[in-house]
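Milestone 3.1: sequence recovery, worked example.
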């Protein structure tokens, strides 16, 4: 498993190894980082290889450059402060802060190993808005396993995506592997008697309305007001159920490449 920022006590080896693990062995990353920080590439190399340190203001920008989550950013800032500390007492204080974070994460991992479903409180959060499920399912697609890619695709702020990912990790719905995220072992399913089922349907019907407004050629929307006999209502419903079952069989073996939403409406008025 790839190391994360939480596996280090010194931010410099973390950055050096992180850069080396990136595409083309990190070629050009130090230059791009320098441009983002508003400094020379030579200065970045100096920080990474000598006794010079980033300022805390620069450390914040470094975190932004590498698209750290909120928790990763906090830990990275502590690492920088730890290396910059001018006294033993300050170093010990910062070390305890980092140890508390590591211990909390360790306990969380232990809990997630035995968790196989969401509790009611977390279900309420998950179904509070459409984007929790959207981000969750996007993680099954290799092209959308980083916060930046997800934010770009869903047109949502990067900070919001990072908060959603933190929730998914805490509940076991996602796991972080290095710089990318994948779907976790926790599963979620709503029964017909669930208090969340109406919210779930409403979230995606609202998105359907927006899809209608966009009028994309690939989308399909069908609405019809009709009259029919009582005996034919269950027959039509059965056809729709069978269609859903056939779709599910196709979806099971379909390669994860794009996010699609399936909704179906057929009701009496």
């Amino acid at each position: 498993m790839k190391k994360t920022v939480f596996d280090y006590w010194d931010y410099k080896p973390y950055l050096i190894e992180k850069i080396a693990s990136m595409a083309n062995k990190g070629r050009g990353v130090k230059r791009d980082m320098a441009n983002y920080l508003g400094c020379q590439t030579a200065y970045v190399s100096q920080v990474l290889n000598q006794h010079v340190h980033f300022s805390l203001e620069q450390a914040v920008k470094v975190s932004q450059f590498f698209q750290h989550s909120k928790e990763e950013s906090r830990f990275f800032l502590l690492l920088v402060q730890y290396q910059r500390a001018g006294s033993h007492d300050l170093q010990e204080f910062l070390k305890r802060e980092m140890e508390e974070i590591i211990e909390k994460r360790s306990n969380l991992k232990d809990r997630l190993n035995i968790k196989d479903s969401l509790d009611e409180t977390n279900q309420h959060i998950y179904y509070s808005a459409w984007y929790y499920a959207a981000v969750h399912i996007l993680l099954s697609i290799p092209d959308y396993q980083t916060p930046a890619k997800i934010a770009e695709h869903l047109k949502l702020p990067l900070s919001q995506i990072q908060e959603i990912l933190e929730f998914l990790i805490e509940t076991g719905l996602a796991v972080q592997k290095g710089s990318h995220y994948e779907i976790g072992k926790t599963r979620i399913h709503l029964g017909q008697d669930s208090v969340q089922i109406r919210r779930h349907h409403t979230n995606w019907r609202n998105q359907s309305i927006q899809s209608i407004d966009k009028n994309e050629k690939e989308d399909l929307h069908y609405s019809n007001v009709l009259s029919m006999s009582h005996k034919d209502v269950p027959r039509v419903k059965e056809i729709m159920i069978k269609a859903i079952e056939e779709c599910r069989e196709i979806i099971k073996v379909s390669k994860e490449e794009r996010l699609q939403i399936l909704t179906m409406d057929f009701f009496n008025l």
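Residues 5-114 form a domain with the 434 Repressor (Amino-terminal Domain) fold (CATH 1.10.260). The longest strand covers residues 174-177.
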